[in-house]
Amino acid sequence: MEDGATVIGIVDGDFEYTAPVWHKEILFALSAGVTVLGAASMGALRAAECHAFGMIGVGKIFHEYATGIRVDDSDVAQLHGPAELGWLPLSEPLVNVSATIDALAEHHVVSGQEACQLNAIATSIFFKDRTWRSIIALADFIDASRTPAIRQALRAFSINQKRADALELLKVMAHCSGVRAAAETGWRFQRTTLWNEMVKQHSTAKVPGELS
What we know:
Elements: E1 7-10, H1 23-31, E2 35-39, H2 42-50, E3 56-58, H3 60-66, H4 94-106, H5 112-124, H6 132-138, H7 147-157, H8 161-174, H9 193-201
Parallel strand pairs: 1-2, 2-3
Helix pairs in contact: 2-3, 4-5
């Protein structure tokens, strides 16, 4: 914002050990006429939550949250390794798992009923423990002789829905206006006590709208 951003795209972010992007920050940007878009993961969550205030959602995952098909934040959560290991994924987000299971059904690797059962199993697993290995291990309705073919199909038809939505967001951003628009929000940004405290804490990098 301080550097004159006109468009901001939000894709993902950390949680648990660091603060995720704050809704108030998004509202502040929107109130200043900045176009704010979200997709894929935390961006999709924030877009669904702030859509009524003018934030723009992009992609399938946003649509699922916005329409109530998905309601659990952990559906997009993923455990990963540190930067030194290239953020190596250690778990599978449910949004990717569901998209891949749908692809397996479309290619007749599993039946429609089996796809529903696999989705139910994946949903029941805590997000930090959700891997294809853990999902298949609990799928006792699938004969062991089919497991090698299913594993091969997973490599062939795996869908990274988060990545696909993030790429779609970049395409949309490329066509956004390069100027801040007059905010026609129908609401007014409120500088609450918490907001003013945040501004004070970051006084070394002056925030637009800071109280003098």
